[in-house]
Amino acid sequence: MLFRILETHSNDVLLRALRAAIAAHRPAALRSLLHARGERAFARALGELSGRVIADALSMLPAPERAGVLQHLPRAARKRLHEVECADPRHVLHAHRVAMPPRLSASC
């Protein structure tokens, strides 16, 4: 029970830090969070955000790091990201095409 409470608090802190780094457009802060928490935790926290915010965050990461995060992004979040890319082609992330499962990476 205590571990669950600590884990939830830790996830909330990561999510708040992610939101702040994205809003302030601070790629160095995003990379620092990614390296400190790992791809899985980072991707799970991103999965709580809107597709546009996910796209903004991923656009601030170098391609290899972006691809690593995309591999761990929850399916629902990948779907929201894909919808944003279809609505606004300027948000297309080339790593997204490689890391997405074939049925989700098909063109719009």
Overall description:
It is built from eight helices and no strands. The protein is mainly α. α1 (2-23) runs antiparallel to α2 and α3 crosses α5. Residues 1-6 and 94-99 have low confidence and may be disordered.
- Average pLDDT works out at 82
Quaternary state of the chains: single chain
Overall radius of gyration:
14 Å
| Tally of helical runs | 8
Layout of SSEs?
Blueprint: H1 2-23, H2 27-37, H3 39-46, H4 51-59, H5 63-72, H6 75-87, H7 94-99, H8 102-105
Helix pairs in contact: 1-2, 1-3, 2-3, 3-5, 4-6
What is the structure about, briefly put?
About 75% of the residues lie in helices and about 0% in strands. It is mainly alpha-helical and about 110 residues long.
Give keywords:
disordered N terminus, about 75% helix, about 0% strand
